[in-house]
């Protein structure tokens, strides 16, 4: 499941993933918000939190994630990733440099720091 993170500055789109993420989560929640945040010429800022109960992606959701990432390749100037899941943290650290914007990885205990960094 993907839910919006409330209380973020207007220029930041933020989500928390918990349980198993389904394609319907992308279609109903994430994609419309990302589309709205990247309208026009301005670059957005993105915060993604994988909560402690995050259990991965369904296959179709993983495909939707890849499609969205390619479609919005250069649309974000800052991306903050917050998780204690080692494999996802390592993957972002290993490949984050390929992203056109700045990417930084935080632990769950650093969530407030992540919010501040994405907003700065």
Description:
A five-stranded mixed sheet has the order 1-2-3-4-5, sandwiched between helices. The model has no long low-confidence stretch (mean pLDDT 87). The chain has helices at 23-37, 59-71, 86-95, 111-119, and strands at 2-4, 12-21, 44-57, 76-83, 102-106. The protein is of the alpha/beta class and 120 residues long. The radius of gyration is 13 Å and the shape is globular. α1 links the parallel β2 (12-21) and β3. The protein contains four helices and five strands; from the N terminus they run ββαβαβαβα.
Task: Supply the key terms.
120 residues; alpha/beta; five-stranded mixed sheet; 39% helix; 33% strand; globular
Give me a quick take on this structure:
The chain starts with a strand and ends with a helix.
Radius of gyration, CA atoms, in whole angstroms? 13 Å
Separation of the first and last Cα atoms: 28 Å
Strand content range? 25-35%
The whole-number mean of residue pLDDT values reads 87
Write the layout of secondary structure elements.
Blueprint: E1 2-4, E2 12-21, H1 23-37, E3 44-57, H2 59-71, E4 76-83, H3 86-95, E5 102-106, H4 111-119
Parallel strand pairs: 2-3, 3-4, 4-5
Antiparallel strand pairs: 1-2
């Amino acid at each position: 499941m993907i839910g919006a993170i409330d209380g973020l500055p207007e220029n930041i789109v933020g989500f928390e993933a918990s349980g198993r993420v389904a394609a319907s989560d992308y279609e109903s929640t994430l994609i419309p918000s990302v589309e709205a945040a990247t309208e026009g010429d301005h670059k957005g800022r993105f915060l993604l939190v994988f909560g402690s109960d995050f259990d991965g992606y369904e296959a179709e959701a993983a495909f939707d994630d890849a499609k969205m990432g390619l479609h919005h390749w250069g649309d974000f100037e800052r991306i903050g990733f917050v998780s204690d899941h080692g494999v996802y943290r390592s993957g972002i650290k290993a490949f984050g440099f390929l992203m056109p914007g700045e990417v930084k990885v935080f632990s769950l205990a650093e969530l407030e720091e992540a919010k501040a960094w994405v907003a700065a």
